[in-house]
């Protein structure tokens, strides 16, 4: 028997019907796959963003610039004119001290305010004022930050280590098996699955192109198998002659009866569903190994540095500023107001260097000792 070689036939006529069947299968799976959110491992839950630390000292420092402005204005009315004193043989002149310390304090505040403002402003480059440090070096900041993240924070080796330490793969495999066991034991799931399977087989068999493609493939396989077997070939030709139909017609008739055969034997799927969880348990080590290997390959292909850098470069200047300010705003404000305090201290040094330095040394020394004692 000679079989004419056929070119593979691509089935396109019923692609929409096949899609609808698989969509229905997806709906069945989604209907029963409802994982309990409370069973998520605590180690891998997303953590909420830490709140910005509220610094109590900031509330104390905030009025200082306004006090200094008021003292500066008051110095024009009265500034210890003609006041003086003698302490330990040192002659002290108090005239002008209010203006000195107020101006020094305001300069300290303004210089810190300008320095912090210059980190972010101007956003766009200006002819005379230039551009803020962060917007001017946005690309460089993105590169450095992405490099630090990829090298030290979430590099592939660290991710692999965390996967091994957390045992997340085995954890979720056990969770999935427990869930599969619960689903496969449900009668409504088995009924839905069997109904879908029978409908799918019937729709495929009703497609003439599908039957032709399968029968052509079987004929080619038979021809290859009987290539050097003359006796079997002769027996096959004899059977075709006696039955009054070609082998192609015989195979096609078998395919048409496939839905009836499937419906008659659909009960075997019950046995398969009963054994399915146990089969997964028996091959748990291999499953974990395969999933781990796939994850490692995915991680090795993931370029963390490029991913972080590309996303940071998409940030506009204002968004980048807000990101930095949201994390450090309280500290930046404290630095500004501390500038006023340090400037005021500098004013006392300008007024009377020796006594001021001695007093400051005593004060700072006492603060350091108290801090050391509390720390211990």
Automatic annotation (TrEMBL):
Source organism, top-level taxon: Bacteria
Region: Disordered, residue numbers: 1-20
Transmembrane segments: 64-84, 96-120, 357-375
Protein keywords: Membrane, Transmembrane, Transmembrane helix
Pfam families to which the protein is assigned, alphabetical: DUF445
Main location: membrane
Subcellular location: Endomembrane system
Similarity remark: Belongs to the UPF0754 family.
Protein name: DUF445 domain-containing protein
Organism name: Rhodohalobacter sulfatireducens
